[in-house]
Amino acid sequence: MNDESKKTQQAVALSFDGISAPKITATGKDLVADEIIAIAKSAGIHIHQDPHLSEFLQLLELGEEIPKELYLLIAELIAFVYMLDGKFPEQWSNLHQKIVAQA
After folding, report:
1. What counts of helices (H) and strands (E) characterise the chain?
2. ∠ at Cα 81 (77, 86), nearest 5°?
3. I need a surface site. Which of 2, 14, 25, 54 has the fewest CB within 10 A?
4. Which domain of life is it from (predicted)?
5. Quick check: 10 and 58 in contact, CB under 8 A?
6. Each residue's pLDDT tens digit, 63-92
7. pLDDT over threshold 70, residue 4
8. Gap between the Cα atoms of 86 and 15, Å rounded
9. Computed from CA positions of residues 44, 57, 14, 66, in that sequence, does the dihedral angle turn out positive or negative?
10. Helix or strand or coil: residue 25?
11. CA separation for the pair 63, 68 (Å, rounded)
12. pLDDT digits 0-9 by tens, 16-53
């Protein structure tokens, strides 16, 4: 048995209402983690794999907001997911025209 097969599968789900800090909505290991991931995939939710972040977030309680120390990292992940979904801030509309106009 190698080290890879000994690793515990972990999953943490966050919710973000756009106003307050993201909150922990689900955590789990092994079979529960598999179920969290399966539900997320079936709902079309993007999944970010980061074992270190997941391990840290596993320490938080359900409903707890992420700590301020993680705001920047989580904000970058949320922004990236928004972009993957084709959502951009209103100020970005016609950004390509602004860039061409300045060239």
Report:
1. 5, 2
2. 145
3. 2
4. Bacteria
5. yes
6. 999 998 888 888 888 788 777 777 766 666
7. no
8. 19
9. negative
10. strand
11. 15
12. 888 888 999 999 999 999 999 999 999 998 888 888 88
